Amino acid sequence: MTRYYIDLRDARGTVRDDEGADYAHLEDALEEAKASARDMVQQYMDRRLSLEATCVEVRDSHGRTMAALTVAEVLDHPVHPAFKTDCTDSPAPGHH
∠ CA(28), CA(2), CA(39), 5° rounding? Predict the structure, then answer.
């Protein structure tokens, strides 16, 4: 098992996951990150907050960002959103 941390980033700053959770595979942590991004969509829409620059990042136990997923990507591609290496990276080809 590997410990991964799922941080939430938006225009106001970053909320760091200081506890993390153990996952058998990175893919399991990415699934949790997708669920977190979907939850953020609902919360931000309920509060009428901008989703611009809103992102979920998965870090490993060494603090390295393993993957990032923007909320905009989840809205554009809800079934198969494309992860990036950083919140500021351009979307994958075929994605906005």
Answer: 40
Q: What is the pTM of this model?
A: 0.80
Q: Give the start-to-end residue ranges of the domains of the chain.
A: 2-76
Give the chain as a 3 state SS string.
CEEEEEEEEECCEEECCCCCEEECCHHHHHHHHHHHHHHHHHHHHHHCCCCCCCEEEEECCCCCEEEEEEHHHHHHCCCCCCCECCCCCCCCCCCC
| Cβ–Cβ under 8 Å, residues 58 and 33 | yes
Binned average pLDDT, 10 residues per bin, the chain of 96 residues = 92 90 95 88 72 85 92 84 83 52
